[in-house]
UniProtKB/TrEMBL annotation, chain A:
SMART domains: GGDEF (SM00267)
PANTHER family from the UniProt entry: DIGUANYLATE CYCLASE DGCM-RELATED, REGULATORY COMPONENTS OF SENSORY TRANSDUCTION SYSTEM
Pfam families, per database record: GGDEF
Name this polypeptide is given: GGDEF domain-containing protein
Coiled coil: 207-237
From TrEMBL, chain B:
A single Gene Ontology CC term: outer membrane-bounded periplasmic space
Subcellular localization(s) per the UniProt record: Cell envelope
An example Gene Ontology molecular-function term: carbohydrate binding
Protein name: Periplasmic binding protein domain-containing protein
Main location: other
The organism of origin for this protein: Ruminococcus flavefaciens 007c
Amino acid sequence: MAKNKKSKGSGAYIFAGILLAIVYVINTFLVESIYWGNQTVSRQTSMAMNSLNRMNGELTAINTDCIGIAAGLKDAKDMPYIMMDTERRYGNIIAAQHQFEAIGGLSDEVMNRYNYTKSIITAYKSQLDSLGTKNVESGDYSQMGMIMKQDIYPLQVTASEMCTATIDTVTKDTQRIMAANTKKAFALMTAMMVVAILGEIAIWLFARRAKKARLELEEREKNLAEVDAKLKATRQKATDLAVTNVLTGMKNRYALDGDISDRLETGRFNIAVFDMDNFRSINDTYGYDFGDEYLAAVAEKLKEEFSDVAEIYNITGNEFCFVFNSNVSESQAMGIAQNIQRVMSSPYEVLNLAVQLPCSGAVYHYLPGDCLNVNSLLVKLDTALRSVKMNGGNMINTVMNM
Amino acid sequence: MNKEKRKGFFKAVTACTLTAAMLLSGGCGKQKEEKSKIAVITKQKLSFWSDVQMGAEDACNELGFELLYSVADGDNDYVSQEAAIQHAIKEHAAAIVIAPNGKTELNSAFEQAEKNGIKIININSRADYPGVISLIRSSDTEGGSVAARHAVEILKKNDENLTKLKNIAIIGHTASTAEDRISGFVDSFTNLASSAIAPDVMVENDQNPEKLAAAKQEKIEAYKKGIIKGTPCAKRDAAEEEAMKILTNSANEISVIFGTNTNTTLGICDAISELGLEDDIVVIGFNSDEEELGYIRTGVLDGTVVQNPYMMGYVGVRYAKRSLQGDNVPSILDTGTVYVDQTNLNTDFIQLLIYPRGKNDEDGNTEVGK
C-alpha cells in the first residue's frame, strides 16, 4: 500500500515536471527567435539609415557647391573639378540607392517614401544637368542664380526633407516591427504561462482527487480490518464458548477431547476426575441458582489451588477433570488428588450459607495406548468413580491398568 | 463533498483566469494608448487641396498621428476655419496645420489654440500671427518668375535676340496670390528681355552710363505699363471671354499670354484654340489640371507652372511632429515650383507631382483652382 501511494504521487510530479520543461523549452526558442528577429531588424535598419544618410549627405554637398557657384564663391576655372565632384557624389547617391534597394523586407510606407525621395533626387539631378551645368559652362551667372533659386534649391530642400522623412519612417517601421515582435512573443509566452498554470492546476486537482481517493480507500481498508478483527474475536469467542463451561469458566469436555486425543497413543500422564457426592441434594434443597453459585465457588478455588500443577476441565455439571502436568509423577499425583478432595470437600460460603459436601475421585496413571479415544478414557475413570460412590463415596479410587 | 469539489474547481479556474487577464492586460496597456491628433485645415474643395490632404494623410500614417482634416468653403471663408480650429481644440489636437483664409481673422482662435499647447504650422500662406512656427509654401513670385523665364526661352528659340518681341497679356485670378505671380512674371520677363525691350542701340549715343541706365529703365517701365492686364476672373468662362476680348482686339500685338491659375489658363487656352493662335502666341499657365495637361499635349498651352501641394501637406504634418518633439524647424520652407511642358510631362517626377498616389488613385476631381 505504501508503495502504491508513493507511485501515485510521483506520477503527477513527473507529469508536472515534463510540462514545465516543455514550457521552458518553447519559451527558450521564443526568446531566441525574438532575439534573432530583432537582430535582423536592427541590421536592416542600420543599413537603411546608412544609405539614406549617405544620400542626404551627398545631396547637401552638391547643394553647397551649387550655392557656392551661385554666390560667386567658386572660381570659374575650378568648374570642371566641381562638376567632377558632383558626378562622383551623384555616383555615391546611386550606390547608396542600390544599397537601400537591396535591403528588402521594408514596409510599403518606407518604400513609398523612398520612391518619392528617389524621384525627387532624380529630378534634381536632371535639373542640374539640363539647366545648371549648361549655364555653369556658359558662365551665365544671372541665369544660374535664377535656376538655382527656382529650380534646384527647392528640389534639393524637398529631396533632403524626403530623405529625412524616409529615415523617420524606417525608424518608425523598426519600432513597429520590434514592438510587434515583442508583443507576439509576449502573447506567446503568456499563452505558454497560462498553459503551464492550467496544467499545474490540473495536476494539483488530479493529485488532490487521487489523494482523496487514496484516503477513502485507506479508510475503507481500515474499517474492513476492524470488522475482520471483530469477526475473528467473535469467532474466537464462539470457539471458546464451545470448549468452555459458561458457569465455571473452565474448559469443557470438548476441550479435553481436543487437548489429549493426540496424546492417547503415545502419551504417558496422570489424569483424575472428581465429583461432589450427592450434589443433587443442594439443587433440590436450595435451588439450581444456589447450586450454580456453589459450583462456581468450588471451581474458583480449584483454579486458584491447582492450575499450577494441572489443566482443569469442568466436564459435566459437578465433575472436574485434572490432567496433571507431565512433570507430576504417579505418587505426586496421588498426593495432589488427596489435596483436591480436601479442597473440594471443605466448607464454602455461598449466599451467606456455609455449605459442605463430600466428594469422590478417580485417578488414572495413563500409559500409551491404554485407550483408543478420550471417551473410553473417561468411561474408565467414570467406572472407577462410580464404584467408589457405590461404596458410600468420599474416597479416591485408582483406575487399574489392565 | 461534490459541492465542495466544485467550489474548489471554480476557485482554481477563477485564479487562473485572473492571472491570465492580469498578464494580458499588463501587456496591452501600452497598446491602448491613443494616437495624437493633428488637424489639417485647408481653403476649399479643389484638387489642389485634395493633394494637400493626401500628403497630410500619408505623413499621419507614416508618423503615427490621427488626421483631423477639414476644408473651408472658399478662399475667404475664415468662419469655418475658425470652427475647425475650435474643433481641433476640443479634440485635444497636438498641432494645427492650416492654410489660413485671412491675415488676422483667425488670430483669436490661434491664441486659444496656443493656450491649449497646440502648435501652429501654416501652409500656402502665412497668417499675421506671431505664434506661427513655420510656413511651407511655394513662392508665388518665384512661380511667376519661372513662367516668365520659360516664356522668354520659348521666344528665344526662334528669335535669339527677341527682335520680334511684342507686348504681353496677363489674365489674373481673383485671390491675393495672383498679384505676386503677376509681379514675379512681369519683373522677370522684363529683366530677361531687357535687351530687346530697351536695346542698347536706341541709346548708344548717350555715353553717360547713369543716363543710359535711366533711359533703359524708363523704357522698361513704359513696357510694363503697356502690358495688357485683363480683368481678374474667377471662372473659366469669364477668363475665356476676357481672353477673346484681348485677342480679337490685339492678337497681332501679343507675343505671350499668361494665366495665373487653372481657370484663367483654361479660359485663355479655350480662346487661343478657338481663334487658332497656337503657333503665334506663347501661352504659359499655372497648375496641372487634367484639361491643362490636355492643352499641353495638343500644343495650345506651351507650359504650366506646377506647385507641389502634396509636399506642403506632408511637410506641414512632419514639421508639426518635429516641433512637438522639441526640434527646431525652419520658419519657412519653399517647396518650389516646376515648369511642365511637352518635353517633361511624362517624366516620373512630373507624373509623381501631378498624381502623388499614381494616376489611378486620383478621385476624378479635376477642378484645380489654387
